[in-house]
Amino acid sequence: MEKSAPATSQGTLTQIQYLKGVGEARSRHLAKLGIRNVLDLMEYFPRDYISRKIEPKLKELRHGDRAAFTAMVSWVDERKTHKGKSILSVGISDARSTLVCTWFSYPKGFPQQFKPGSTIWLNGQLTEYNGQLQLVHPQVEFVDRLEDEGDFWKKRDHLPVYGLSGNLTQALLRKIVYSAFELYTQSIEENLPPCLLDKYGFLPRKEALQKMHFTLEPGKVPEVRKRFAFEELFYSQLLWARHKRHHNSHTRGIAFENKRDLTTRLRKQLPFTLTGAQKKVLREIFTDMCSERQMSRMVQGDVGSGKTIVALFAMLLAVENGYQAALMAPTEILADQHYANIVDLVAELPVKVCLLKGGSFKGKAQIKKDIGDGSANIVIGTHALLQEDVSFFKLGFVTVDEQHRFGVQQRATLARKDNHPDLLYLSATPIPRSLTLTVFGDMEMSLLDELPPTRKPVQTFIRSNNKIDIVYREVAKELEQGQQVYVVCPLIEESDKVDLLDAERLHKHISTKVFPQYSCRLLHGRMSTAEKYEIMSSFKTGETRILVSTTVIEVGVDVPSASVMIVEHAERFGLAQLHQLRGRVGRGARQSYCYLIEHLPRSRIALERLETMARTTDGFLIAEKDLELRGPGELFGTEQSGLPQFRFASLVADQPLLKQAREEAFSIIDADPELDLPKHAVLKKHYGRELAAKEKLILY
Ligand code: ADP
Ligand code: MG
User: Do 335 and 416 sit in the same domain of this protein?
Assistant: First the structure.
């Protein structure tokens, strides 16, 4: 295989269509798999490895398992149902046990490929039928008949199995993978320096890539794969290390001075004492703000952990230094709520607070004028604050509420504004640590990991929908005590597609049949902002006692006397969402309850979600579980979140590796910021090629 390469000057970056055996049509299918050049193909790792040897394994298999194994065909049976449909059954064995595989649809000529006595490889999930384990529609490979794959693969004991697309076949993939390595092995470049390879015992890249495709010991593949995961994580951390270095040495922020004026006065008049966590986080924020560096810090704290007050202290520090402070909320309802709270809290202080919303309203021009001439000290608003033609007199501090989904480029834009204001992000969604290290590597983190002592953890119960009457009886007691109730439902109106309870029907049922004596209103996303606002306000004042809604109730909405949350079809909600929903109760001093109503059937994962909710109220635990169950992509949403698309690394399984990669990257940049040392030449070259452009966009 190590024949020297007659490669074109592009080496492994040669476009895939020029590789022997590919051509234009196939290259289009390969592109769908992300394979554009030879290197992409080399990095397209098998999903599985077929062994030609039959190892007794059937006995260990259980219902629900996913299994891939090699076995012998014992018998083949094709028959027709009374409706004239064909069913194919194939009996297989591994010399000790037997199993039946079944196909209800298959291409013509398929059954003839199964020859009793021949060896096949199967991959599928075990199910049970009439008490018998079986495989329905497994993936099959006919191990004995690989003639079309050339001499090389014929002699191998193990064969790679690739993910496919279009009319690509395993045989074709194997063939072109082989020729890629035959021609281009010599052009494979190393991208980790010798010191790291030695330290972690990683194989050189060339060798590791070959092992991934041509392994003799599939059991050792995970160990080889680690090197690729490390590379990926390491380079993403190198970017953050460079970012931090650049930021610390180039960007001058504002060095505020702790004058103990407005902040001290606020502390003295608060009706409560700050929690230990609030004090700790405030120290972290003040240290940042009083340094010359521009602050970029995120405060993560569960709903109700008291982030607003923390942000207010920081705003007052800016104000007592003669600067303006801004608070951006994601929605108008939240902006209103912050405004009302903050006006209250600073009532005794010489601080002017104003509220700027989008659209046109009376007095807007005056507010803009106050912002422009500096008479407004604290400005609260939605994103309109940054988007509209609002110019600040002397903006020194910006806090962004509930907006951890801001991508890194948006953060960079905000950071470059005016005087390079200090930036504080508030997040009510606890974020798993591996994500903060990869997505928010440009920020410092503060954790508000303690709730005010007045809060009791919400008690959570999983109830089946046929026991809903018992739930209503328990809820009735809370209503009698003057408490308020949220009922959340996934759909607005009846749908013929799915058989689900919808908010409209539920509202009608509750207001006429269950609790006709209490005022009960409906809130959903198709209502106008004004309508939603009016309904929310009437719930806040207590005039409405029961609020039936879809998930539109804003995060962070604070109604202390709401002590019950009922979530219908809880099996359909994600963990993060359930946690957010539950966070709307438990805001007052009274014990609160959350009823998760499940409708059968539900999946095993759905049950796991519900049980997690019932077991803990710790947002960080819930976030880790969410990451485990869903994976980072879904957990974190779209591209704009800046979530790096890792091909090799898993943010769940590779957390220890991430920690190592981060330490290495930061210590290298610390010692050699421009990667000029000869021993880092490999890094410099690779970094320049892959990341320099990205670096330009995000540095601030
Ligand atoms: P969140 O972190 O969800 O934004 P808020 O800042 O809205 O939380 O605070 C929730 C409630 O808790 C507010 O009514 C606030 O006044 C109150 N609160 C904040 N800190 C404390 C404290 N240390 N002790 C008691 N109550 C507090
Ligand atoms: Mg808040």
Answer: yes
